[in-house]
Amino acid sequence: MSAIRWLDRSSQVLVAMAQADHDIDDEATAVHSELLTRQPSFREEFEQFSSRTEQQIRDLKVAVGDSPTQMENLSHIAAAHERWAAESRRQMAGSAFHAADAGWSRGLNSLHSSWQQAIRLEETLKAERMEKVSRQTRVTLALLSALCLLLCVMSYALSRRGVHRVTAAYTEAWEEALGAEPQKEEHESGAKQQIEELSSYLEQTSQQLRRRERELKQAQRLAGLGSWEMDFRTGAITWSEELFRIFGVDPSKGAPTLEEHDGLFCEGGWSALKSCIELAVAEDKPYEIELDVLRPEGGCRRILAKGEADRSPNGDMVRLHGTVQDITERKILEDRLSFQAYHDLLTGLPNRELLQQRLEDAIHLGTAAERLTGVLYIDVDNFKFLNDTLGHPIGDLFLKSIAQRICESVRVEDTVARIGGDEFVVVCYRLASEAELEAIANRIITEVRRPHQIGGTSTFISLSIGIAVGPRDGTNVHDLLKSADLAMYQAKQVSRDTYVFHTPEMIERVNTRVEIEKDLRHAIEREEFLLYYQPRIDLVTGRITGLESLIRWQHPSKGLVMPGNFIDVAEASGLIVPMGEWALDTACRQTQAWRKRGLIDFPVAVNVSIAQLKRKTFVQSVETILRRYELPASSIEIEITESLLLEDADLFARQIRDLKDLGLFIAIDDFGTRYSNLNYLKKLPVDTLKIDQSFVHDIDRTASDAAICRSIIALAQNLNLRTVGEGVERYSELAYLRQFGCDDMQGFLLCRPQPQELIERQLNRTFDLHGQASEVGEILTIS
Q: What integer pLDDT is reported at residue 154 of this predicted model?
């Protein structure tokens, strides 16, 4: 290969190297490893080439003789060669294999200057027609200048990418150039032109290198990634610019010595890092460790330190090098995400996920220590009503206040978790007896019961607590939580504002409920339900003023099942909706039949559940059924329980108004049994109040019940509402209701609920309101 072709090949190599330098970070580790493998052969080849070049310089000095200008130019070339030879030896020793530095740019500038002087020397030699300088000598001069460029190319390529391509091209071009035969004179001008073009390209490459150096520094700064290395032979430690920033060390003072490193880390940090480095050296394995470093302004930063050791081919330790990345912000984010994954964001308490882990630990600890594990399942009574009334922001403040008081009532080692909207769980570790659990439950109830001063008001809150004890009520997380949950629901049914321990009977009740739900689903499919009717009787005339339809279940094996045995299950499972729709349709169909026969001219009442009223299409479905049976809306009365108005007053108020707009009658059932809000009586289009039987039963025996009944009747009269006394079983109760001015009565005293074919016999009857024996016997016989 001629010198011109060799120089052209060198130019192509440099271009290929520049084009390849677009993603140095991704392959930096792989390139570095390959470089270390090839480093000995690079050094050997370089020393051979360098020796040959020095000999050629000496030959040229003899050839140029006494020409001062030529000797000066030749001296510049020799000096350039010496600088690049020294720089290349330093790089091949390891310190410049990672990244370009300021010396790199200076070397490029020196190379460019030497290159221009080589061109001038070539022109001088040609002008003076130095016959004693052979054509081979001029080729050697060109090769000498090109050597400087190739040293630059080799060093840059070794520190970046393209090690294989550049090294192969370098070796091939050099060997072919040294063995090239003298070419013809016409190629000399082409060689000069190639040298000038390559010199221009070298200047452009120098600018690109400086730009990429800036980009690399910026990338390291954005990533918070610094690098370092230590030369084992010299003990010199080198830090990158970003590493100085991470540790807050002044770059002008240079990298700290090994003795000074201890002061850079938080307590124990430097010892841990030294142990990792020693292990990496001993086992030839890279290390990775997270540490906290001290900042000069105070505080700590978290870093991720990685590194490894390099050995020479004969096994001697050459150097240590690694990277340090500031991961403080990443760790803060990870900690925040971890906290959010295992904690409730409103109260800061453990969530269900963390609760299960803590409970599992408590079970293991209790088993090992032969102690009890306690679980308290806590539900806030009537929280939905409070939340809807005062608003969700105020409700959240109440939840935070409740959580704080629960935490203050338990032991330090216990866990308090929030697992739902108004549900909390307490896990108690290593208990000696159930009495400890009972004491904790009492403290919680007492503490939470104290008034909460939130939103400018003083509000009282009560809790229902279910308690399960391991291993008696369960030996795993699922069973203990389930047992405590069952006990909590039992506490709500008993009286609320109390606690209940789990018992085996609760499991039996759950199994019974599951069986009932399964049978209910079959009953809906097979239409096993019936409607019974109970009359509402005028307390003045004794005539029927209305009928209430009541559902019954004709079970295939258990016979007639009363609603008290399955309504709760139906409501909890959602089956109450199809059951309610069936009851409404059946009652309307029967009403149509009676009205066509002229048997009734009064309304038939149908009980509507909360689940039905929550459906936005409920009013439309009622209208559709009325239209289907061609019934006037006034022939149907809708009964809703007072407790329903505590669930979602605004929604239900809209539904009730829409029903009233259709022309239906509206009655409030079980009036007085809940926390009555008399305000809804003023706002809602109600027609009738039905006094709950719990007040009627002892109206003749208890002054308070009598006073309540009298007050309800007086209130209804003032609001132009009709009143009905429910559950009347004695004539003395009937007499008191008449005395207080109650309009109607309903109860077993005069007529029990009866199926359609039996109630038809009573529709035109006038009932005796004074209790004559003959009539009482007749009534009881019929019912």
A: 47
- Round to whole Å and give the CA distance between 32 and 161: 9
> What span, in angstroms and rounded, lies between the C-alpha atoms of 27 and 174?
28
Look-up of token digits 């002054």: 703
Q: Residue 336 above 70 pLDDT?
A: yes
CA 727 vs CA 389, 475, 583, 698, 751: distances in Å: 33, 47, 22, 11, 11
Copy the structure tokens of residue 142.
């060109």
Helix (H, G, I), strand (E, B) or coil at 613: helix
The answer to whether residue 177 scores a pLDDT higher than 70 is: no
Output the CA torsion 250→253→256→257 (10° steps): -170
Rounded to an integer, what is the distance from CA 256 to the centroid of its chain?
Answer: 43
Distance from CA of residue 636 to its chain's centroid? 51
* Tokens (6 digits) for 45: 């080849």
CA triplet 346, 350, 355: central angle to 5 degrees? 145
Which pLDDT tens digit goes with each residue over 404-435?
999 999 999 999 999 988 999 999 999 999 99
Give the separation between CA 449 and CA 465, rounded to whole angstroms. 13
Structure tokens at 656: 């009730």
Mean of the pLDDT values across residues 756-764? 94
Indicate the pTM of the whole model: 0.51
Whole-angstrom Cα distance, residue 702 to residue 95?
102
Other beta carbons within 10 angstroms of residue 344's beta carbon come to 20
* Residue bearing tokens 């258990």: 558
Query: Measuring CA to CA, which residue among 92, 158, 658, 475 is closest to residue 319?
Result: 92
Residue 674: CB atoms within 10 A of its CB come to: 16
Q: What is the pLDDT of residues 375-392, one digit of tens each?
A: 999 999 988 888 887 888
The phi and psi torsions of 497 (rounded to 5 degrees) equal 55, 40
Question: What stretches of 496-619 adopt beta strand conformation (E)?
Answer: 498-501, 529-538, 544-555, 559-561, 604-607
Give the pLDDT of residue 59.
62
Which is higher by pLDDT, 104 or 365? 365
Phi, psi (rounded to 5 degrees) for 393: -60, -40
In terms of Cα–Cα distance, which of 615, 683, 618, 691 is closest to 649? 683
